[in-house]
Write a structure and sequence with these properties.
Chains A, B, C, D: InterPro entries: Aldolase_class_II_sugar_metab (IPR050197), Aldolase_II/adducin_N (IPR001303), Aldolase_II/adducin_N_sf (IPR036409). Chains A, B, C, D: It catalyses: L-ribulose 5-phosphate = D-xylulose 5-phosphate. 4 copies of one chain form a homotetramer. Chain A is of the alpha+beta class. Chain A has one domain: 3-Layer(aba) Sandwich (L-fuculose-1-phosphate Aldolase). Helix content of chain A is 40%, strand content 12%. The first copy, chain A, has helices at residues 3-19, 77-86, 99-106, 116-119, 134-139, 141-152, 178-201, 210-220, and strands spanning 29-34, 39-42, 58-61, 92-95, 163-166, 170-175. Chain A has a 6-stranded antiparallel β-sheet with strand order 3-2-1-4-6-5, with helices on both faces. The A-B interface holds A 114-117, 120, 183, 186-187, 190, 193-195, 197-198, 200-202, 205, 208-209, 211-212, 215, 219, 226-230 and B 24-25, 27, 44-47, 71-72, 75, 97, 99-100, 102-109, 131-132, 134, 137-138, 141, 168-170, 196, 199-200.
Chain lengths: 230, 230, 230, 230
C-alpha cells in the first residue's frame, strides 16, 4: 500500500466511523502509521466529517513532530502516538464515543466474554484503564491517556484483544489496517450492547468457557484459522 | 421450485438477514435443502454480503460431501446438515447473531410466551441448548452444535417452535422455505426484544394462558388456519 | 370527505403504521367508519403492506355483514366493529404490535402520566384490559377482545384517552379520523418508551400533578384549546 | 448576521431538531434573538416541520408584543422570552421532547457528569427544575416554566451548562447561535442516553473527577481552548 493509499484509507476510516453510527458530532478520530517511514496520518481537529477529504489529513512523526500540514491534528494525536510506539504490531487506531462501549467506560466496568460474537474478535474480556491522577490530567493528559492503555496491556498481546475502554471517557480500538481497526470498533460496540443487556438479565452471568473462547478466536485468527476464503 | 430458483432464494435469504438488521459484518448464514436430490445450498464462508451472488452459493450433500464448488462453504455447514438430517420437515435454516436473541442465548435464558406476537409464530417458549462440553468443543464443534439443538427438541415438533438459542452463541431459525426461515428469524428478534423489556418490568411475569397461545398459533397454522387470503 | 377519500385514507393509515415503525411483518391493521352509511373500511387479511392499494380495502357493515369484496377482511375485524358500536364518537381504529406499547401490554402494566408528552394527547393513564377467560378465547375471541376494551372504558370518554393495551396482546388506538388514529398510535409508542425508561430510574415514580395533566391536555383539546393555527 | 439570515437559521434549527431525531410530531421549538433590536424569532404553533419555511417564522419583542405576523407563535414563546431576559449571554433556545433527556426530566433525576462526552459540552451536571405549583400552572404556566429554569441557574453561568430539564416535561438547551443550541440539544440527548445506561450498570456510580471535567470542558471552551482549527 502506497502512502497516498494509506492516507485515503485513513480518511475513509474516519468517515466510516460516522457511517456505522460510532461517532456523532466530531467525537472520534482514526489514524494509521506507515511503519517504513514512521509517519503517522491522522484526522484534523474539529473538521466536520461531511466535508473531510484525504487532503485534510495531518501527518506527524512518532514523536509528534509535524510535517508541513495545512491543518491542526486531532487533539488526541498524542494518545495515538503512545500506542504506535508501545505496540509495534498495530498499524491503525480508531477512537470513538460509541454509545455502549462508552457506557461501560463510564461505569468503569470491563466487558466479559459472554458469547462467541465477542470471542470471534476479542480473545478475552475488554479491560478498563485505571483512572488518571489529577497530576496526569493536568500535565500531559493526552499522552497519559495512552500510557494507562499501555499499562492495561502489560503481558497481553494487543492484537489478541484489539480494544480498550478508557475510564470515564470511551473506547480505543486498533488493528493492522484502518479497515480492520474500524471493524474492531464496530464489533466492540455490538458486543458491548449485547453484554449490557445480558448483564441486566443476570447480574452474575459467567463468561463462556475457555475452550469455547479459544475455539472461536482460533477459527478466525492465527495459523490454524479456517474461516473465509484463501 | 427448480434447483436454480432455490439457489437464488438462498442467496436472497442471506442478503435479507442483513437488510432486516439481523446480521452485522459476516456473522450469520442461510441455507436450504432440495429434498428430492438431498443437495444442500449454503452461503460461502466470509464473503461480504454486498457482493454475494447466487453463483457464490456452495453445494454439499447431506453428509457434507462437496460438489464442484468455487468457494468454501460457511464454517457452520455441519450444524445445518445435522438439522436437515434430524428434522425432515424443514427446508431451510437461518443462523444469525441478531441482538436480542443473542442476548438471551448469552444469558442462557429461554424466551417465554409473553404475548400473542410470540404465539402467532412460535407455539411455546424458545428454548436454550445446554452448554457444549470441552470435548465436544474440541472434537466436532460445529456438528455438536447441531446435536445439542436436536437434543433440545426431543419430543417436540421443530415446525411448531421453529427456532432455538444456542447457549453462549446465538439463534438458529428454520422453516419450510428460505423466505419462511428468514421471517421466523426476524419475528424471533422482535419477540426477544419485547420479552427482554417485559421481564425488566416484572421479573416474575407469567406466560399468557395456554388457550390464548393455542388460539393465536392455530389461527395462522395447521388445517384450521383462517389467517390471510386463500 | 367522500367514501372514496375515506378508503384512500384507510389504505394510507395502514401504510403509515409501517412507515412510522409501528408495524412489522403483517401485524397490525387500520380501519375507519363512514357514520352516515354505517360502512366500515378495513385492511384485508395478510396482504403485504408494500403492495397494498385502496382497491384492496374490505368493506363491511357494523354487524360484520360483508359487501361485495375481492378479499377477506383483517382477522381482527370484529374487534374494530365492537369499538365502533360502543364508541359513537370515534371514526377510525388502529391496531399495532408496536414495541414498547406491546411490552406494557405483555407485562399487564398500565402507563401512568409521567410527563407532558403523555398529557398532550392522553388525559390520564393508558389502561390495560383484564385477561380474557378461556371461554371467551374459545368462543368469540375477536369480539371478546373488543368487549374487554369497552369494559375498561366504563365511565370514561374514549376520546379523552384514545388508546388501550390489550393484556398479553398489544395496543389499540383510535381517533375521529384515520390520520388522528395513526398519530395517537405513534405518540402512544413514544410515551410507552419514555415511561418504561422512567420506571427503570425510579420504580415508585409518581405521575405528574392533576393540574399539569389538565393544563397540557386542555391546551390542545376542547373548547379552550389554544394550540396550533385557526 | 443579518436579521433575514437569523430568521433562516431559526427555521433551519427547527427542521434540524427533527432531522436529528430530537423532535417527533410537532413537539419542540427553536428560537433566536437579535440582541441589537431585541426582536425574537420563533417557530409558529403546530405547523408541520415538513412544510415550514423561513416566512412562517413569528417575530415578537422581549415582552411578547407581536409584530405583524401571519401566524401564531409557538405556545412556548413565553418560556423563551423569560430565558432571553434572564440570560443576556444567550442568542438561541431549543426546546425538544427528545427521548432520554425527557426520561430524566420525567424521573426528576439530574444527569451527573459520568464521562468526557458530557464534560466536552456541559461543565457539570444537568439540573432538573423544581415542580411548578398548582398556582403557577393555572396562572402563568408558560412564563412560570421559564422562571423555574432561571431559579435553577442561580449563581451558575448559563453558557457553562447550556441545558436544563424541566420536571415532568422535557429539556431546554441554548447557545450563542441557533446552530449551537441545536448542537447542545443533540449532545444532551446522547449524554442522557449514556448516563441512563451507565446508571443501570451501577446505581451508585460517581461522576468523573473535577480535574477531568475541567480539562475536557476547557479544551473546547474559553480563552485556553485548543480544539478545532483557528
Amino acid at each position: 500500500m502506497t502512502f497516498a493509499d494509506l492516507r485515503d484509507a485513513v480518511c475513509k476510516a474516519n468517515i466510516d466511523t460516522v457511517r456505522h453510527g460510532l461517532v456523532k458530532a466530531t467525537f472520534g478520530n482514526a489514524s494509521a502509521i506507515d511503519r517504513e517511514t514512521g509517519r503517522v496520518i491522522i484526522k484534523p481537529s474539529g473538521v466536520p466529517f461531511e466535508v473531510m477529504t484525504p487532503d485534510d489529513m495531518v501527518i506527524a512523526d512518532l514523536t509528534g513532530g509535524a510535517y508541513d500540514n495545512r491543518l491542526r491534528p486531532s487533539s488526541d494525536l498524542d494518545t495515538h502516538l503512545v500506542l504506535y510506539r508501545a505496540f509495534p504490531e498495530i498499524g491503525a487506531v480508531v477512537h470513538t464515543h460509541s454509545t455502549f462501549a462508552t457506557i461501560f467506560a463510564q461505569a468503569r466496568t470491563p466487558i466479559p466474554t459472554f458469547g462467541t460474537t465477542h470471542a470471534d474478535y476479542f480473545h478475552g474480556e475488554i479491560r478498563v484503564t485505571r483512572n488518571l491522577t489529577d497530576e496526569e490530567i493536568r500535565d500531559r493528559y493526552v499522552a497519559a491517556t495512552g500510557n494507562v492503555i499501555v499499562e492495561a496491556f502489560e503481558g497481553r498481546d494487543p492484537l489478541e484483544v484489539p480494544a480498550i475502554l478508557v475510564a470515564g471517557h470511551g473506547p480505543f480500538a486498533w488493528g493492522r489496517t484502518p479497515e480492520e481497526a474500524v471493524l474492531h470498533a464496530t464489533i466492540l460496540e455490538e458486543v458491548a450492547k449485547m453484554a449490557w443487556h445480558s448483564m441486566m438479565l443476570d447480574r452474575n452471568l459467567p463468561p463462556i468457557s475457555q475452550s469455547l473462547m479459544d475455539r472461536h478466536y482460533r477459527r478466525k485468527h492465527g495459523t490454524g484459522a479456517t474461516y473465509g476464503q484463501d
